[in-house]
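Batch job 17 of 40 flagged for manual review because the log was empty.
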Amino acid sequence: MKPFTLIIGSSGKTGFRILSRLKQLDYPVRLGSRNAKPSFDWLKPENWESVIQGVTQVYISFQPDLAVPSSLASIQQLVDVCKKNQVKRLVLLSGRGEPEARACEQVVQNSGLEWTILRASWFFQNFSEGMFLDQILGGPVLFPRVSASEPFVDLDDLADLAFESLITDKHRNRLYELTGPELWNFKDAFQTIAEVTNQIIPFEELPLDDYIQTLKEWGLPEDTTWLINYLFRTVLDGRNESVVKDLELALGRKPKDFRTYVKETAETGIWKLPEKAI
């Protein structure tokens, strides 16, 4: 019998990719999102049991990020509900370089259930599906002045490993630190997108405090600006400036590089700048 999987964060960047892979091979899946029935909401733990009942394994993507102070209590409570309902396996998406995420990892590792930890770098797709897309299209790109480079990782590679972790025993009780094959600074990453798309994408760096203040003036919620400030001030302090081969070893192939991602993504037209009115 194929395992019955709950995808928490099924509408997110990782969740929908894993969901697609499971559906293609007819694995039974339950959606874990606020729009699903029954719905899953991180802020309504009283409803979790109705979502978890009957599933044998759970993919966990915590929103907005394991770095937020509430994550540890939420992950502990989720693990308790999973154990009560005889879930067999947990696959946790974690963040590289985040002390709070490591505490959540330990909860999963000490749960007594089978587990896989996917401790990931920043995603390629933040440039095409996430926080940077609107700035690329609207320009100029305003960015905090950071010196650290990041080994961006491809979400499709990550989803391949998450899928394997759910349907096979190959990655049982394993922690993987997931990076792409090379380090990139953010300015060069944006410039590469500009070059491949044959467009000008203005790039302006600000001191981090000024950048956060600008986000507040744009009307971003305080919890969002707090998280962005945390990520740039803490995670991008140089601690993640290294490439790890866990992904290559786990998948048995080279992970996608950033230039290949940019070329493939450019062909979709997602970065085509709107025509300026005459």
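Reviewer: the log was empty due to a logging misconfiguration, but the result itself is present. Strands lie at 5-8, 29-32, 57-60, 89-95, 114-120, 141-144, 174-178, 203-206. Unflagging and moving on to job 18.
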